[in-house]
Amino acid sequence: MVIGSGIAGMSFALKVADAGKVALICKTSLEESNTSLAQGGVSSVTDLTVDNFDKHIHDTMVAGDWLSDPKAVELVVKNAPAQIQQMVEWGVDFDRKEDGSFDLHREGGHSEFRILHHADNTGAEIQNSLIRKVKEHKNIEVLEHHFAIEILTQHHLGVEVTRRTPDIECFGAYVLNEQTGAIDTYLAKITMMATGGVGMVYQTSTNPPIATGDGIAMVYRAKGTVEGMEFVQFHPTALYHPGDHPNFLITEAMRGYGGILRTLDGQEFMQKYDPRLSLAPRDIVARAIDHEMKVRGEDHVYLDVTHKDPEETKHHFPNIYEKCLSYGIDITKHCIPVVPCHHYMCGGIKVDYNGQSSINRLYAAGECSCTGLHGGNRLASNSLIEAIVYADLAAKHAVPRLKNLEYRTDIPRWNDDGTLPHEELVLISQSMHEVQEIMATYVGIVRSNLRLKRAWTRLDINYEETEKLFMRSKVNRSICELRNMVNVGYLIMRQAMERKESRGLHYSIDYPPEKKEVEAFDK
User: What end-to-end distance do the CA atoms of the chain give, in Å?
Assistant: First the structure.
């Protein structure tokens, strides 16, 4: 069983489907995922005349503030070219030059041009190609509008399971069929969690509305290990257009192309923060923009590409050009208003080098997982390649195990006796807004011990109310998503409180990294 249908979930399904039947659980439609919204591209060493694995490894370690797991970094970087070739074989059409070589971009934190892309909608190209292959495979059953509620472990057999239990096993999941309202028991020898990110925990995000941290929350409640949740990446440049949800991303590649960040009066400012200027890693750029906005009392900054050739700009960024033009902004003539916005979760379900979680028979890949690749901050365009590399590692580890595993058929059916349909949906929507406000206000780009404690107190009230509502209500997707958002918010806060330093994306004014950066950002 595969829970999630982005690049991690679908590529894993394709890689294991020849070995047996696969149920692909998709909470909405196959087309809706974080993958489909990815603009910039996929990082991989392909031009060996100027690039090599050591450079990509070093760039990743630097961006991750040296918190990345060196072995995980090496695994992803060295396996990347083979997975690029796999995507090409599946029909992904990466842009190429006239000589047939890949047309590579460069993005923030990368020392070389190594970003493969399809115009500025790479994710959609990958998603659509995978959808075609998945639908063609006779062993993959796609279950759209199905929502996984809980994974099944010994807990559901009456065994007390704690975080110290050494042999927790996953036997499948309870899954809600949204079209019928039925909650069915899905049994699986192997389960892959590929549920994506947590964007809806924050008020503004580039993630689609489905990104409610479901997989991370399910595994946490099942007593699995979750790590690195304090490292929440805020993309420096989302299009500033109040009311948009999700927020439209202005890809990192536009800064690699030569875009310059400016204040509203037209002044460059990145020279005050980093010698790499607008191509510094995302955490530094996001904090710089956040600081400039705060000290100036302004609600956005500008990204300027008006000095570039207009036709070349439209060729490289057709979707951004059309999107901005729909708001009256011609990016070849006008600066683009941008603002930092939640974008990516670097932590998640802790997995080993085979993609297996601390719960036996349960794997995780993609944004919901914590492989160790990203450390304290994700290097641009490392996410899509991580997802498919770890899906491949997991598939190679899982398939040989199938013949030695059995279904656990004594799992009881979902029991909702005594529950009632809840009529006041406003309670759920209001609680969701409260979670988002708490996280945006107190657990954002810049944090402090006081802010985190205040967030803890306020979220605790929401947690108690949500659990009581869940226990007395007929289960639907909304109450489950709220419950997952509360769990994820708690994990981000708790692990942020436990980290007594400023590293990578976790920046606390109570633990200044060095005097120069404090003077720059903590005003």
Answer: 50
